[in-house]
Amino acid sequence: xxxxxxxxxxxxxxxxxxxxxxxxxxxxxxxPGRDSGSSRLTWLALAAAMLPGLAALVALLFTWMSVGQTxxxxxxSEQGQITTRFNAAITNLGSASLDVRLGGIYALQRIMQxxxxxxxxxxxxxxxxxxxxxxxxxxxxxxxxxxxxxxDVAAVISVLGNRSADREVTQDGKPLYRxxxxxxxxxxxxxxxxxxxxxMPRRINFRFADFTGADLRDAGLxxxxxxxxxxxxxxxxxxxxxxxxxxxxxxxxxxLTDARLGAADMTGADLDEANLHHAHLGRAKxxxxxxxxxxxxxxxxxxxxxADLSTADLRDVILIAADLTDANLAGADLRGANLTHxxxxxxxLTGAKLAGAQLSGAILEGARGVPARIG
Length: 375
Description:
By secondary structure, this protein is mainly alpha-helical.
């Protein structure tokens, strides 16, 4: 074979190989415009299989949107109903009929139970009701004749005291709002007896309440929660406060003459210039004296500067680190009282009974009437 013919032969072989490779690539390529019949059937089957899933997804999205709208509509409807109930209750409060007024009071209580967001408003309205219907006269306290608050006023106090307590304090324990009952006349108030599921007396909630200048003479405030409350210059002569929570309460200038305070917790209370003449803070003398006073009051770190505790029953009372500067303790019964680190500077202890009293670390500088064995 000559050289030119050999070259031509090689060129023909190369062309045939290139043509064969090109046909192979065309046969392997399947495009949308060149599908075979079987490929089109495959695509149709896949699309058909996907349709139920897409339909279910659309249905789920629609359901979710419908439920959200329904909930929103229900909330709007509920708020509308509460507004209607609230307006009706307020109208009833202005009725001349006692029965209708009581209906309005208890309707507001139900609103307060059903709607936490409306509790501050209801508390404000009911507090204003008491201030309007039971005010202390501008001329001063009324005579000490036997007296009981009107039925509707007593009902409001019961509703306020039984409200939910967990809705009105911040995480650090500060009040979001207060019950404003300053200068109200609640003489002779008797607490509504209520028991918990365990059979214990129900705690009456008046934490942080403002009773400044209120007349609470002979009122029964057993088991009241008055922690942080303001009772400044309140007239509490003969008040019954056994088992009350008065921690960090403000009682400056309050008249607590002959008050019953057995088992009251008065830790950190401020009683600056309070009058506790003949008050009973020790153990109950008789079982009938109080239903809950089976132990003594706790006045740890309480402020009792210039307080009148003359002839007061302070048996076994805890007065650790209490400030009794210039206090009048003449004739007080301090037997078994714990006065460790108490400040009794310039206090009058003339005739006080101190048998068994703990006075370790107490400041007695300038104190009068201190027995020689102690001073």
